[in-house]
Design brief:
Blueprint lengths: L5 E5 L9 E3 L11 E2 L4 E7 L10 E5 L8 E4 H7 L2 H13 L8 H14 L4 H14 L5 H5 L3 H8 L8 H21 L2 H8 L4 H11 L5 H10 L12 H9 L1
Length: about 250
């Protein structure tokens, strides 16, 4: 989603323009909403404006022509959010987002949560995280890898999670893939370390080769959220400095 001038924008702030088109369908469509951190967003491509490469935009006021784009980061969103929104997002922002994860099951958990966010808001995932953990056996890789048709049916009937057959199948297949990786590299973490550092394009290529349901946005957010890619926090965010002292 960050390649070739693609950004996330707050849909209510975007004026209709012939210079802006939905990446998904190639036409202007205000109803085509894609999830991202913080707010409902749509993904657009500008044909006439060169957009600066920015990570983690929550919304943008975009006009046609060469007008300046303004962005609010996840960090800024947290600072200005209502108490209701902070109750949902602040713990994740302050204590999880961008922090290194060393436990394979937790890395798997983050990957599955990011996969399930596709097409939805991150807020939806945060609200359902406890349900996900219960439904997916605490994200125990070995247990999920053994899920059968009965487990798939159980998950498809669980109203507490995202009931998407492709995402459920991806969780099981990806668990099986991680077990193979663990046998060769010792751990999923060790495999990730062995690939680091790489550009996002290289990361996406590797993930698409090895895992299911891992497009560019999912891979970017997963790697950013666990510290393999920069950009989770603003330069002046105290959490960024906290993370820097940990690595």
């Amino acid at each position: 989603m960050f390649f070739c001038g693609v950004v996330s924008v707050f849909i209510d702030d975007v004026p209709q323009s012939p210079d802006l088109a939905c990446v998904g369908c190639g036409t202007w469509n205000r109803t085509k909403i894609h999830g991202f951190k913080g707010r409902c967003t749509t993904i657009i491509r500008s044909r006439n404006v060169t957009l600066k490469y920015l990570k983690n935009p929550v919304f943008s006021r975009v006009a046609s022509g060469n007008d300046i784009l303004s962005f609010m980061s996840y960090c800024s969103f947290i600072r200005t959010a209502s108490e209701e929104k902070k109750a949902i997002h602040k713990n994740y922002h302050d204590n999880q987002y961008g922090f290194p994860i060393h436990d394979d099951n937790e890395l798997f958990a983050r990957l599955i949560l990011e996969i399930n966010q596709a097409g939805l808001s991150w807020e939806t995932i945060l609200k359902k995280e406890k349900n996900f953990r219960k439904a997916y056996s605490g994200f125990d890789i070995k247990k999920v890898a053994k899920y059968n048709a009965k487990d798939k049916k159980r998950l498809m009937n669980d109203v507490g999670i995202i009931r998407n057959r492709l995402k459920i199948d991806a969780a099981i297949t990806n668990a099986q893939t991680i077990i193979k990786i663990q046998k060769e590299f010792g751990s999923f973490k060790a495999w990730l370390d062995s690939q680091h550092p790489k550009s996002i394009r290289e990361w996406v290529k590797i993930f698409k080769k090895n895992f299911r349901f891992t497009g560019g946005e999912i891979v970017n957010e997963f790697l950013m959220s666990v510290g393999y890619l920069e950009g989770a926090h603003d330069e002046d965010c105290p959490v960024k400095h906290k993370i820097s002292r940990m690595v």
